[in-house]
Amino acid sequence: MEEVSMVLQPISLNLKELSLLVSFDVTQSSRDGVVSVFPNELLQLQTTRSWEFMGFGDNIKHVPEIESDVIIGVIDGGIWPESRSFADNGFEPPPKRWKGTCAGGHNFTCNKKVIGARYYIEDSARDIRGHGSHTSSTAAGNRLERQSFHGLAPGTMRGGVPSARIASYKVCGPDGCTVEAILAALDDAIADGVDVITISIVGDNYAFDKDTLAIGSFHAMSKGILTVASAGNSGPSPGKACNIAPWILTVAASSTDRKLVTKVVTGDGKTIVGISINVLEGEEKYPFAYGKTASSSCTQEQARNCDKGCLDLVKGKITVCDKQTDVRELKAKGARGVIYKVSINDHPRLNPIPVVTLDDTNYQSLISYITSNPNPVGCILKSETVKDTDAPIVASFSSRGPNTIVSDILKPDITAPGVSIFAAYSPVAATAIGESVDSYFLSGTSMSCPHVAGIAAYVKTLRPHWSPSAIKSALMTTAWGMNGSRNIGEEFAYGSGHVNPIKAADPGLVYETSKEDYLNMLCSLKYTSQALGTISGGNFTCSKESKLTVRDLNYPSMAAKVSSSSDITFSRTVTNVGKAGSTYKAQLSSDPRLSIRVDPNTLSFNSLGEKKSFIVTISRNGLSSISGIAAGSLVWSDGSYSVRSPVVIYS
């Protein structure tokens, strides 16, 4: 029988009450007084160069007196408060509006930087796995100069808002993160008074009244708090993006212009370039073991694939594999290194022995050398840092859309650096190289998410009265455009584009969305009053006369799944936050299969805070025959500001 998280209380209760656990059959959802039943599943967790890559380096003037008033709530695996990234030198006492506490457990002390800590799993808020410290420091870690990892990636390590305060909520243990813990943490973070929540945790997608993060983040949004969440690491297959409620800012992961490469030098002096994070010096050449030279018991194909249990002749050799393999097994058998082929070679890995991943072209070059020489040898050199002129590219692991719950809401919303991010780590956490470290490389949407949370917090310091939807809109409409042909999944990979922290603070226009707007959208999806109560924590009655659809939600991007050849319309309203007396003109670009028009195509604003509405129409020509994605964009420009929204039509 499945254990479920369910409520036997009235709708108006808070999130802690929503998280009451009862072991019960899910059929009990029909009982009187049961608001919602959903599985108490285990959800999963998911900087030196990244800020400079985004133009958010030392050229940006930070004002500690203002930034120190912003509090970022990190719901993750805890924090290592003694890390230099979280030292409180120069910090004043916490903001007076802070209502939280330091309940970190045994031998845990907060300070004026880490101003709050709570734990809902294990016996302390202390991070013993590294993930929570890494995400916390990426969002708001102190500025630390001359940092590197065994000489790799040297530079200044810091978070997006170094002077911001951190409140840590530990909800994750060795097996994942429980629904009840996440709900309780969200409830506490709201009550404590955080300004932004970053949560690098994913689970399966459910209808929003059954989705823990959707419910908790709706409550946060209702209190003026933006929730930034990771899209997940299940790419590049379509439809895997998580945390896809429209009131969540959903973040994909992409590369920066810093690339870690590792060279293989063969016995004939040729150099083959792959990627990995190899900190071990190694110019001594070793024999290559490939196929039957690596195994005495398995078939040629099994040996070339390095199937588990096959490789018994690898001691003292560099093992070569046609597929990804278990490096730990090969290390235990005495291998001096491992080289294997990957279909998409875009994120380096750190391993206990020298390892290199090669794309197909470079791999075939290596195999050609091995098979044409009776005694092939080679070495794996220490990794190097090089400039990647192709960046940013969305990582292959980053989860893609389309949105599997609300097909006409584009997800992910935005992408940010998430490949080889160097940030704080727990000194007691496991590492691939078996040594204690206080900073470490990690990749994932878990890493891109706190980048965006840090930028959202930065915008909050400059625009303290902006709503969550205004901040979200600012980040999305000022994002760098991405090249769809270079990214698997196109807009379903990166949403509105790559976050641009400089532009986000001054977007010109914003798309604001209220709590009632979201509820009306849910009404159009036929959510019941009971379901709406579960999500919102209050009573809301859908209008029987309303003809609104999801496409009428005032969202910064526009998406529609084609089911007929009828015209598609989106209604939107923008608020002027740029300059009084400004006039914006519509600029349209689109796939040749689309015909887009805007009415009106000019918006004139007399004052700040003024609102103007418009309608975007996609003509019916060819819509029914569209295969895959047909995309365009709408840009409102007054000559100074460019406010961009992607327009995505798909089948």
Automatic annotation (TrEMBL):
<comment type="similarity">
    <text>Belongs to the peptidase S8 family.</text>
</comment>
<dbReference type="InterPro" id="IPR036852">
    <property type="entry name" value="Peptidase_S8/S53_dom_sf"/>
</dbReference>
<feature type="active site" description="Charge relay system">
    <location>
        <position position="76"/>
    </location>
</feature>
<keyword id="KW-0732">Signal</keyword>
<feature type="domain" description="Subtilisin-like protease fibronectin type-III">
    <location>
        <begin position="552"/>
        <end position="649"/>
    </location>
</feature>
<dbReference type="InterPro" id="IPR045051">
    <property type="entry name" value="SBT"/>
</dbReference>
<dbReference type="GO" id="GO:0006508">
    <property type="term" value="P:proteolysis"/>
</dbReference>
<dbReference type="InterPro" id="IPR015500">
    <property type="entry name" value="Peptidase_S8_subtilisin-rel"/>
</dbReference>
<feature type="active site" description="Charge relay system">
    <location>
        <position position="131"/>
    </location>
</feature>
<feature type="domain" description="Peptidase S8/S53">
    <location>
        <begin position="68"/>
        <end position="497"/>
    </location>
</feature>
<dbReference type="GO" id="GO:0004252">
    <property type="term" value="F:serine-type endopeptidase activity"/>
</dbReference>
<dbReference type="Pfam" id="PF00082">
    <property type="entry name" value="Peptidase_S8"/>
</dbReference>
<dbReference type="InterPro" id="IPR023828">
    <property type="entry name" value="Peptidase_S8_Ser-AS"/>
</dbReference>
<keyword id="KW-0645">Protease</keyword>
<feature type="active site" description="Charge relay system">
    <location>
        <position position="446"/>
    </location>
</feature>
<keyword id="KW-0378">Hydrolase</keyword>
<dbReference type="InterPro" id="IPR000209">
    <property type="entry name" value="Peptidase_S8/S53_dom"/>
</dbReference>
<dbReference type="InterPro" id="IPR041469">
    <property type="entry name" value="Subtilisin-like_FN3"/>
</dbReference>
<keyword id="KW-0720">Serine protease</keyword>
<dbReference type="Pfam" id="PF17766">
    <property type="entry name" value="fn3_6"/>
</dbReference>
<dbReference type="InterPro" id="IPR034197">
    <property type="entry name" value="Peptidases_S8_3"/>
</dbReference>
<protein>
    <submittedName>
        <fullName>Uncharacterized protein</fullName>
    </submittedName>
</protein>
<keyword id="KW-0325">Glycoprotein</keyword>
